[in-house]
């Protein structure tokens, strides 16, 4: 949420938010001019045009209830993220059970070093930028696609990437097949002219390839990958 708040602020929107506890990140946002209230209260939404909430927030939250009672649109984080993808002609959503933040950071750094001036919204602080959101004037936006509560199915990127698939979030998915089906939908949400990147080092990810109806590019350490990493050093 903090990365999205920072990006929207940089795009010229008036942003405020609330969190139960103050942190270094909320202090950073305050320093940018974003008002972060400590604690949740209906007064925090006064004057808001839309209220965006994360998966961690329950629907009985006083701010959500107040917004609904005032007929202010209430949307999930992924729904706002989907709108941000429309800002750039090339949108890349990184999904997978593990490694999303790391992959987003690597891709954002590569694109920046290539002087493409990317826009980036991820869940962790990138060393190169010392933030989890940058607003570039280039054609590419890179975002992290969180599979929790299936909210990533709201996104419609021009390119998607799947790092790996392992059974997690048992409160959202019945079994591995249920998780794989969600990622098949995620991959097929890419337009016909887009691309889907899949790491073939992971058998669970490789297994969904036959059900994907979009152009696929494989990557990984495996010798059969179309884009293969070699001579990797930690």
Largest sheet: 8 strands, mixed
- Overall structural class, as computed from helix and strand content, comes to alpha/beta
Radius of gyration: 18 Å
Give me the CATH superfamily of the largest domain.
Mur-like, catalytic domain
- In CATH, the architecture of the largest domain is 3-Layer(aba) Sandwich
Order of helices and strands: HEHEEHEHEHEEEEHEHEE
**In total, how many domains does the architecture comprise?**
2
- Give the integer mean of the pLDDT values: 94
Looking at the structure, the CATH topology of the largest domain is: UDP-N-acetylmuramoyl-L-alanine:D-glutamate ligase
Keywords:
234 residues; alpha/beta; Rossmann fold; UDP-N-acetylmuramoyl-L-alanine:D-glutamate ligase; 2 domains; eight-stranded mixed β-sheet; two-stranded parallel sheet; acid-amino acid ligase activity
Q: Topology of this structure?
A:
Elements: H1 2-10, E1 16-19, H2 24-32, E2 35-38, E3 51-53, H3 62-69, E4 74-76, H4 77-85, E5 90-95, H5 100-113, E6 119-126, E7 131-134, E8 140-144, E9 159-162, H6 176-188, E10 195-199, H7 203-206, E11 216-220, E12 227-228
Parallel strand pairs: 1-2, 3-4, 5-8, 5-9, 6-8, 9-10, 10-11, 11-12
Antiparallel strand pairs: 6-7
């Amino acid at each position: 949420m903090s990365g999205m708040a920072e990006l929207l602020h940089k795009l010229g929107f008036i942003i405020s938010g609330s969190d139960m506890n103050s942190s270094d990140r909320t202090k950073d946002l305050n320093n940018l001019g974003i008002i972060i209230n400590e604690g949740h209260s209906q007064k925090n939404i006064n004057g808001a045009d839309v209220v965006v909430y994360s998966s961690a927030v329950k629907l009985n939250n006083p701010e959500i209830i107040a917004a609904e009672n005032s007929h202010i649109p209430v949307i999930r984080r992924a729904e706002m993220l989907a709108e941000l993808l429309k800002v750039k002609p090339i949108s890349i959503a990184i999904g997978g059970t593990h490694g999303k933040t790391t992959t987003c950071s690597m891709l954002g750094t590569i694109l920046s070093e290539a002087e493409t001036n990317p826009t980036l919204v991820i869940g962790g602080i990138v060393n190169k930028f010392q933030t989890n959101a940058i607003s570039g004037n280039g054609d590419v936006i890179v975002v992290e696609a969180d599979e929790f509560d299936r909210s990533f199915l709201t996104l419609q990127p021009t390119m998607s990437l799947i790092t790996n698939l392992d059974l997690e979030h048992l409160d959202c998915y019945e079994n591995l097949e249920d998780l794989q089906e969600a990622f098949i939908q995620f991959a097929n949400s890419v337009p016909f002219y887009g691309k889907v990147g899949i790491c073939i080092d992971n058998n669970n990810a490789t297994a969904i390839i036959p059900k994907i109806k979009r152009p696929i590019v494989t990557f990984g350490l495996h010798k059969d990958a179309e884009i293969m990493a070699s001579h990797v050093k930690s």
